[in-house]
Amino acid sequence: MSIRYWLFAVALGGCLIGSAVAEPEQSLPEQQRPPLQKAEEPDSNDAEPQNGQAEQTKDTGVAGVNVFPAQMTGDPERGDAKAKPANQPDDSSYLFWGEGLAQWGMAITGLLAFAVSIYAVCLLKGTLIVTQRTLKAAAKANAITGRAVREAAKSAERELRAYIHIKSANICNTLSKDTLPFVQIVWRNFGQTPGRRLIHFSIIRFAEPDFSDFRMIDYSWATMGDMAPGHDEPSVVPLAIWHKHKDRIAKGEIAVFVFGQLTYVDAFGAPRETNYRLKMLVDSRGIRDGRLIQCNDGNTST
After folding, report:
1. Bridge partners of 293?
2. What is the reported pTM?
3. Where are the domains of the chain?
4. Are 202 and 258 in contact (CB under 8 A)?
5. What count of other Cβ atoms lies within 10 Å of the Cβ of residue 14?
6. Dihedral sign, CA of 33, 34, 35, 37?
7. What CATH code would you report for 164-301?
8. 58: Cβ–Cβ under 8 A, 6 or more apart, which residues?
9. CA distance 200 to 261
């Protein structure tokens, strides 16, 4: 049995003890007590009472005769001497075993009730502390659950979203003298959902082989619509001054750089972009097939 039941039992027992104690008969105040009557001293001239009469008076307790002698209390010099009958109970013992016993019982009951109240307050405080800890743990669990849900949503989005990258890039018609060469970049959607509103921004530079200024200035652009998953879409950019720099390109004096950006929106409404930097491959035999290769840096995507 826990301590709360013991305290409840003790408090209930104190209440029963206090109510079971009978209230003693209250004594009359001193102002309402009848005055003590002094025994009349027999006259010396009178004859002594007979023995039978004296014994009858002592045995029967005739009114007006104080059978038990009175005791004097107080200090006669201060004038507060009082006569107290010999058969009157002691006030100190009466206050303890009379009215005092019931008051002691009620006092003990009150102390027990106070102890029970303190214990109840402690229990309430403990309950509040446990409740606060539970709420904090629940809030932490909700935060963890929300974080896990968001991570799961992001993981599903990464798995299902569109990924549009370059499949191939070439400069076509490089050996033809009659037809103007052009750059053809083939894009493919490697994701599982469509890419929407595709726009291609491109720049072609004839520069030295160590060219590094890939700023998006004076670019051309073209819309490409939407692209389904696994679908290929070509993007064509003409080379207007190819024949002017063809010989220098074949000797390796200058190189052809093609760079730009493709923007689109995935199925989840997030804007995406693919940045690329390409350079024309030229070997010791000169221009072979016009293939474009990626530069060392600058090829990123979101």
Report:
1. 279
2. 0.55
3. 1-21+67-160, 164-301
4. yes
5. 19
6. negative
7. 2.60.40.10
8. 67
9. 6
The amino acid present at 292, given as its one-letter code, is L
Dist CA 113 CA 36 (whole Å):
47
DSSP β-bridge partners for residue 273: 263
Answer left, alpha or beta for residue 192, where phi above 0 means left and psi between -120 and 50 means alpha.
alpha
Angle made by CA atoms 65, 67, 70, in degrees to the nearest 5: 100
- pLDDT tens readout for residues 215-264: 988 889 999 999 999 999 999 988 878 888 888 888 888 889 999 999 99
Q: Nearest Cα to 174, choosing from 234, 235, 233, 249? A: 249
Task: Look at residues 35, 154, 20 and name the one whose alpha carbon lies nearest to residue 83.
Answer: 35
> Among the listed ranges 76-85, 132-141, 182-191, which one has the minimum average pLDDT value?
76-85
Determine how many CB atoms are found less than 10 A away from the CB of residue 40.
Answer: 8
Tokens for 197? Answer: 């509103």
Helical spans, DSSP H, in the chain: 3-20, 51-60, 91-97, 99-160, 242-251
Note the Cα 191 to chain centre separation in Å.
Answer: 41
Are the beta carbons of 165 and 235 closer than 8 angstroms?
Answer: no
Which of 191, 201, 200, 261 lies closest to 231 in space, CA to CA? 191
Q: Is 266 helix (H, G, I), strand (E, B) or coil?
A: coil
